[in-house]
Amino acid sequence: MDLRELYQELILEHSKKPRNFRELEGANRSAEGYNPLCGDRATVYLRVEDDVVREASFKGSGCSISTASASMMTDALKGKTLAEAKALFELFHELVTADPSKAAAVSAQLGKLAVFAGVHEFPMRVKCASLAWHTMKAALEGGARATTE
């Protein structure tokens, strides 16, 4: 099995059995996200204490890439400071939008999230992969809505 197949397996696993797929009791930050291009929707819930993301979850409906990205993002956020969470957003955004020569350097810093590196080859899917991330950033910044436009 090559690396691309492993990545597809991981994305399928997270889309079929998403982690943290629920409304978060005790969330003190949240935002709703919408991708008007394909209709994907996501609501991200965060419980932030002492500038650390203690808990993260999401609800919504979307394609397998959108769901898998939200699932993996919520796992990755737990225990991160707000600054680390924002830096993670920037790295992920660079990964899915960068040219391949830059993607390799970013991938090394993202661990399992590097499975989304191939998304940049499919511009219509970049917004699917990044919807939850834009929504999380809006939640961190106190906003109520995010869009991929």
What is the helix tally?
5
H-E order: HEEEHHHHE
Strand content: 15-25%
The second-level CATH architecture is: Alpha-Beta Complex
Main structural class: alpha+beta
Proportion of helical residues: 40-55%
Largest sheet strand order = 3-2-1-4
In the CATH hierarchy, the third-tier topology is known as Sufe protein. Chain: A
Q: Report mean pLDDT, rounded to a whole number.
A: 89
Main β-sheet description: 4 strands, mixed
Shape: globular
CATH first level: which class? Answer: Alpha Beta
Distance between the termini: 36 Å
Radius of gyration: 14 Å
Q: Uncertain regions: pLDDT < 50 for 5+ in a row? A: none
Number of domains: 1
Number of strands: 4
Would you give an account of this structure?
With 149 residues, this protein is α+β, with helices and mostly antiparallel strands. It has one domain (3-147): Alpha-Beta Complex (Sufe protein. Chain: A). Helix content is 49%, strand content 19%. The chain has 5 helices and 4 strands. Helix 1 (3-16) packs across helix 2 (64-77). The longest helix has 18 residues, at 123-140. The protein is globular and about 40 Å long.
